Amino acid sequence: MESLDRRTRGSQSGLIMSLSRALRCCQRIFSWIPVIIISSVVLWSYYAYVFELCFVTLSNDLERVVYLLIFHVCFIMFCWTYWKAIFTPPSTPSKKFHLSYSDKERYEMEERPDVQKQILADIAKKLPIFTRAQSGAIRFCDRCQVIKPDRCHHCSVCETCILKMDHHCPWVNNCVGFSNYKFFLLFLSYSMIYCVFVASTVFQYFLKFWVGDLPNGPAKFHVLFLLFVALMFFVSLMFLFGYHCWLVAKNRSTLEAFSAPVFQNGPDRNGFNVGLRRNLQQVFGEDKKLWFIPVFTSQGDGHYFPLRTLRESENPLLANEEKWMEDGGSDEESADENGPSVVIRTDS
After folding, report:
1. What SS3 class is residue 140?
2. Whole-model pTM?
3. Where do the Palmitoyltransferase DHHC domain residues begin and end (predicted)?
């Protein structure tokens, strides 16, 4: 009977694991549906504008050439930024923020929560960490087994910690964070430009079809819907883009706008706000010629950020980045020498 029960439990466990894998596979497939919808609408708009409007409806050759040139510039920049926003992997914390083997062993052996918090606090002294959990403790991810850098959060969809996480966007099927936030902003801006150009150039032919100056045909349907779709997307993008422009100006992420980061002196929504110019440079870089090109130019590596109330020159860890990087490197070497990692369970 015992062997039968073991076999039954084993088969049930295997069935549950198979169902779990199948559900995750379905989730990954369904997560691409919003991207497919956007891509389909864009491809249809390309056909409708280039063929039905420019080649079928327009009669002026000069106007057709000008429209096609500007349209393709907008279309290429839109596709480029959308591609970068989708396929740029989100950055995750480096190994310097993982506990060494000895620290993990010491943490796991300790059963008192207060002492565990003190262990994490002692380790964090070697790292450029200034934010805290709501309880005042060092922010530690028990799923990724990592001390969270400032502005880093765990994404339940990506199942990992993301540096300077803003939000998980279903329309790009990716987590928007430090590595692709610039691309996401450019995607929104070029989407708006694309919609404005399409709507402004289609409008006069929309009126001509509406009043009957142009003959009915397949082009009429495409031109009418081009205007409605372009205006609809522009209005929705305008509010989203405006909101993110405000976030950039204040140097906040979407998560920080809803829940202020906590420092040693308490919550502060403006803790990372270092002025408009420096806020822009953190996202777009110092070279203004590259601001509107979808290449990575953001400052830093996403693990630490200047604080409004603390100058870098006043903080030895930030003033001498090589110091804590070398310390982190030595920790990794000691971890490799001591042996494999140990899984930690914590309620923090």
Report:
1. strand
2. 0.83
3. 138-258
